[in-house]
Amino acid sequence: MRSQRHTPTRSMNTIKVGSLFSGYGGLDLAVHMAIPDTRTVWVSDVEPGPNKILAERFPDAPNLGDITTIDWDQVEPVDILVGGSPCQDLSAAGQRAGMRPGTRSGLWESMMHAVDALRPKLVIWENVYGALSAHAFSLMESSEGHLGDGPGGPVLRAPGRVLGDLASIGYDAKWQVVRA
Predict the structure, then answer these.
(1) Partner of 97 for a Cys bridge, out of 81, 89, 135, 177, CB 3.0 to 4.6 A?
(2) Burial level of 139, CB count in 10 A (0-12/13-18/19+)?
(3) Are 108 and 144 in contact (CB under 8 A)?
């Protein structure tokens, strides 16, 4: 399969895209296909293989590297922020550790910091189907007696964490399952 290289358009109305947990750039490419006149202005990934692909696909987009060390005050603002935080702890194929501090899937919190600092017009969070049933931790649901508690313990799930976090900083958010 031939590598797809994204050739950005450069008009006054170009919509700027920032990419977190970029991987091979698939989510970015989908946004470029769905929304005309977009340009990925930066990416963020730490894995060597995907970094080579990103450098080829988006040669003008610097790689910001480790999301946990980025100073968002120094990053070019974007109109659309996309990211698929690691799925290993949410996937049925993984350990199902959930979206909690110390898990790879808990890196959603770092994406949330980026959203809060950059305030993009649109945020797209992508993940696996297992996110719908994976447990999640939230400061709003961190102890007994909160809204998400059920007879067997907290019932907050990963999409609830993501939507709740976005709502807490003023975003109107919804989730939707899209078949691959």
Answers:
(1) 89
(2) exposed
(3) no
What pTM was computed for the model?
Answer: 0.83
Torsion, Cα 62 65 68 72, to 10 degrees, reads -10
Instruction: Kindly list the strands in the beta sheet with 80-83, ordered across the sheet, starting from the edge strand earlier in the chain.
Output: 38-44, 15-20, 80-83, 122-125
Return the structure tokens found at 34: 């769905």
Amino acid at 131: A
* C-alpha pair distances (Å), 7 with each of 38, 60, 104: 10, 9, 32
Alpha carbons 80 and 55: distance in angstroms, whole number: 20
Tell me the torsion sign for CA atoms 107, 110, 116, 118. Answer: negative
Question: 45 to each of 34, 67, 144, how far by Cα in Å?
Answer: 23, 8, 36
| Catalytic member of 53, 80, 87, 115 | 87
**Could you confirm whether 144 is annotated as catalytic?**
no
**What is the maximum span of the chain, computed from C-alpha positions, in angstroms?**
56
Torsion angle (degrees, nearest 10) of CA 65, 66, 69, 73: 50
